[in-house]
Amino acid sequence: MQLASAQLGMDFSVSWKPFFLDERLPGGEGKPKMDHYQAKFGPERVQQMLPRMVQTFADEGIPGYSLDGRIGNTLDSHRLLEYALIKGGAQKQDQLVEVLFDRYFLRGQPLSSKEVLLEAAAAADLEGAEALLSGGELSDDVWSKVESAHDEGVSGVPHFRIDGGGRGKEVSGGQVPEVFMEIFTSLSRTAPGAPSA
């Protein structure tokens, strides 16, 4: 999506919405990613999936992806992302997302760990994270948004909702830049104020 936006010279705002792939995962330090995925998909399927996932990340300029590390319940990370949006807008939330993605996908750190989340908040210059994570603030907001996503038919991530001035589009799953270029081009042609043919 970012590559398509850059190639077309378009500027837009991204806001991230919470979604749980498995809300039953443990909190704290979580559990080994490989154990989780092998239990979920089976060892043979994981061995088939892993090279494709590594290549997908490499194609996006992100070398070093692996299933090493840990996975855990992401409620607190979603609360922190909601907090970032409230405190600093979409730009601050996006900044925190980038830090969290680095921690999880490249460093194998569990997003259920309070220590990992506090370090990520500090790296994103987000103040007040300690107080937020010490309580349950924004939990209801996160759950409400997750339930709304389910009600609207969202069944996995990534899932993109692209607002086009009332003529939005939705795309599920990882997509090549050309898919987004086509959507952005189509929406820009029909946007209010766009030149007519």
UniProtKB/TrEMBL annotation:
Residues 10-180 form the DSBA-like thioredoxin domain. This is DSBA-like thioredoxin domain-containing protein. GO terms for molecular function: oxidoreductase activity. InterPro entries: DSBA-like_thioredoxin_dom, Thioredoxin-like_sf.
